Structure of TM2 domain-containing protein:
Amino acid sequence: MQMIPILLFHWLVEVSLAAYAVSDLPTFAKESVYFSQRDIDFDPRVDNPLMREMIMNLPSDVDRPGIAQYPLGPMVSCSNIPDDFLRCESIPKHTVPLNETGCPHFGGTKPSEIAWTNVSCRVLGSIECSGSRTFSRERPCVKYTGHYFLSTLLYSLFLGILAVDRFCLGYSAIGVGKLMTLGGLGVWWLIDIFLLATGNLMPADNSNWEPYY
């Protein structure tokens, strides 16, 4: 007697399903067709208002951006990758004429005095980005050859009479004259301290002071 309600319930369910034809389910059928016919490059993130505005403002002859060029996503242009994730060529060691690629001169104590040149850079293999992975980036024409400002200034203060500062900077001929005259009887010694402190006495090879970091 206890099984009769259960059997009756199963019979009612089977009768209901048989009477409800598949053609009476337009919602599910249309939805399945909609997803199956989507374009493979469909990007749901274009629903973002900023993305829609950018696409609407593009000229008609410009291809619409895909996922790789999505400006609000995590994948950025390779040319905008920070220097820490790049491998770049070394700056040329020799100067070149102004009409050639390279450094017309090296060094400078002010930003306006420093020349710039382009070097080829490549994004590290483990970094994902859009666009070409090899590109040019500007680099300052600055080289370092092991000269430290503080060390040279201390040499000039305490050993300037013996021209140790001039020898360390690479001015050997001038250093001999300064040594033979004992720092120009003290006058030359004071002048070199002043020139160092004001940035007017730099290494003879046109290199910059080594940074302290």
In short: Strands lie at 86-88, 116-123, 134-140. Residues 115 and 130 are 30 Å apart (CA to CA).
